[in-house]
Amino acid sequence: MLEADAEVDRREFTVRASLRLAPGDRLALFGPSGAGKTTLLELIAGLVAPRRARIALGGRLLTSTDKPVTAVPPWQRRVGLLRQDPGLFPHLSVRRNLLYARSAAGRRSELAELADALGIGGLLGAMPARLSGGQQHRVALGRLLLAHCEALLLDEPYTGLDLSLRRGLTELVVSLVDERRIPAILVAHELADAQAFATIMAILDRGELLQFGAPDEVVRRPASRRVAELVGYTAFVPVPGLDGAVAGVHPERMLSGRHPESGLVLTGPVSACRPAGALWEVTVQAGGAGVTGRLAEPAEPGTELTVTAAGPPFFGPDGSALGRAPQGTGLAGEATGRGSAAQAGPR
Amino acid sequence: MAGTGIIWIALLGPVIALATHLSWSAIKSALSAPGAFDPLIVSVESGAITLGVLLLLGTPLAWALARGTLPFPRVWEAGVLASLLLPPLVIGLLLIFMVGPYTFIGQWLAHFNISTTNTFIALVIAEVYESAPYYVLGAQAAFAEVNPRIEQAGALLGDRPVRVFRRVTVPLAAPGLAMALCVAWARAIGAFGAVVIIAYHPTGLPLQIWTTLQETGLPTALPYALVLLVVALPLPLAAYIWSAHARSRRRG
After folding, report:
1. In this predicted model, what pLDDT tens digit does every residue of A67-88 receive, in sequence order?
2. Which residues of chain A does B158 touch, with a Cβ-Cβ cutoff of 8 Å?
3. How much of chain B exceeds pLDDT 70, in percent?
4. What Rg, from alpha-carbon coordinates, does chain B have?
5. Is B154 within 8 Å of A129 when comparing Cβ atoms?
6. How far is CA B103 from CA A160, A299, B85, B96, B97, in A?
7. Is the peptide bond preceding residue B202 cis, with omega within 30 degrees of 0?
8. CA distance A84 to chain B (A)
C-alpha cells in the first residue's frame, strides 16, 4: 500500500495530492508539462521537501511533517524511480548495473531469470553505451526490480522511443508489476500511453488533481471542461436552449453523417480537410465554432457536411460537468452552422 | 595541416633543444657527483606530499564547487582563481607575510619547533600554493561532468552519499581527476617562484638547476633539467593514456 497526502510549493503554484494505491495498482498521472507530475514522484522518492506531507509505503512511514517529523532519506526508501534518461552507470557493465544495489547481491539466479524476461540475457557483458535506447530502459527497469524496490515510479520513461517499443516496454512493466504486486505510478503526457499502463488514471493540472477514474472514464466523462481539454476535446459547441452550456467534441469521437441516437449532430460547411495518418482531419463550421474530427473519408472544403459527436459531455458556464444526454433516445442535440436550436439538451 | 604542424613543433621547441644539446659525458659527470640525486629525492618527496594534501583538501572543495552547494559560488571560485592568477614570486612574498617567523602562525608553529621558512614544510607549502588551483579547477571540471541524475540513481538503489561518491562519482570523474592531479604534479615538481623565496633549502630540482646555472653555467645545469622532465612528465603521460583508454572503454 502506498499512501501519499502532500502539499509541495513550486514557484508558481502549490502541488496538492492525495493518493492511495493498493499493491498491484497502476496509477497513470496525466497532465500538461509543468503540472507538477514529476514533483509528485520526486516527493515520494524523497528528492524534494514538502510543505506538508504524510507518505507511507507498506506500513513504513517515509515522510511526515507532523510530529514526530519523519524524513527517510532516498537511499532507505526502497522506491524505484525510472526517468526518461535511464541513468545507467556508464562505467559498469550491464551485469554490474543490474547487481548494483546491495540488496541485489547474491541474487544471481534471479538475475538470469529477469534478464531473460527483459530480453537482455545476451547483453550482460556489454557496456551501457553499446545499448539502444530500448535496451537501456530494460536494463534500468531490471536494476530497480532486482533491488526489490517496494514501489515503482516511472517519469515519462519512454518519451522519444517509437510507438511499438513504448507499447512493448509498457506491457513488460505491467506484467512485472502485476507479478510482484507492488504499486506503480506512471507519469505520461500521451493519453494512450497512460491508458495502456493504468488501472487508475489521475488528471493533474497546475498542481491540482482534477479527476480520478478508470482509464476510459476520464475521456468519456471528464469531470470538468479543463479535464476535457487535457484529454483531447478540441471544440466546445454551445447547446442552444441551455443557457451557457457547451458540449465537448473530441476529434477521435466523431462519426460521419447523422446519428442522433449516438450523440450530437453537427451540420455546417467544411472549412479544411487534411490527411491525418490513415484518416482525414475535417473541420466543419458548426454551432459557431470550428469543429474538427477524424473521419474515414475526405470532404471537399466549402461543401455542407453532417457529422455526429459521439456521446459528448456537457459543461455548465462554470466549466463543471452536467452529465450526458442519454443515447439511443433521439434526445441528442443538433447544432448547425447557421446556429439553429438544438433539439434537446443534456439531462 | 602544415600550419598546425609548425605550431606543434614550435611548442615542442624547448624539448627538442634539450635533446640536441645534451651530451652523455655531461649527464654522467653531473649525476655522478656526490649528492647529485638529493635534489631529485627532495622534489619527489615534497611533490608526493603536496599531492596528498591536494587530494585531501582540494577534492571536497572541487566537488562542492562543481555541485554549486556553496553559498556565493562566484566568490569561492574567485578565491581559487586568485592563487592561479598571482605570479608565483608574489605568492612566495605573501607567504612570508602569512606563515613567516614573525607572523601569528609562524610564532605559534615555533612553539612546536616548526619553522616555515627554508624547511621541508616550507617547500611543501610553496608547492601546494603553486599547484592547488590547477588541481581544484581541473577536479571541479571533472566532477561537473558527472550527471547528478546518475548519482541520484545510485542513492535510490540504496547507497548513502559517501558510497555513491565512491562507487559512482569518483569512478566517473576519475579520468578528469587523474589529469588534474598530474597537471598539479608537474606544477609542484617544477615550482620555483614561491619556492625560491620561502624554501631556498632544502634544494629541490628547480632550485638545483638555478644554482648550478649561476655557479657553473648552462652545460652542467642541463642534465638536471633532463632529470626534472623525466620525473615530471611520465606521470601526466601515463594518466593521459589511461584516461583516454577509460573514456573509450566507457563509450563501448
Report:
1. 889 999 999 999 999 998 899 9
2. 75-76, 78, 101-103, 147
3. 100
4. 21
5. no
6. 64, 93, 24, 8, 7
7. yes
8. 11
In this predicted structure, the answer to whether residue B177 has a pLDDT above a threshold of 90 is: yes
Low-confidence ranges of chain A (pLDDT < 50): 326-333, 337-347
**Cα of A134 vs its chain's centroid, Å:** 20
Under DSSP, the state recorded for A214 is: -
CB contact under 8 Å between A127 and B252, yes or no, is yes
CA distance B97 to B129: 14
CB pairs under 8 A between A and B: 68
In this structure, what C-alpha cell is assigned to residue B214?
A: 649561476
Mean pLDDT of B30-35: 75
> Which member of B155, B160, B252 has the closest CB to residue A130?
B252
Q: What is the DSSP-derived secondary structure letter of residue A69?
A: P
Rounded to whole angstroms, the Cα distance separating A290 from B234 reads 74
Residue with cell string 599547484: B131
CA A275, chain centre distance (Å):
26
> Contact A91/B171, CB-based, under 8 Å?
yes
Cα–Cα distance list, A233 to A225, A308, B139 (Å): 9, 14, 53
Rounded to an integer, the average pLDDT of B233-249 is 82
Q: Tell me, what's the pLDDT at B252?
A: 65
C-alpha cell at B61: 572543495
0.95 exceeded by pTM: no
Of B143, B136, B139, nearest to B81 by C-alpha is B136
Taking only the tens place, the pLDDT of each residue in A160-171 is 778 888 888 888
Partners of residue A45 in chain B, C-beta under 8 Å: 156
Least confident of A335-339, B51-55, B159-163: A335-339
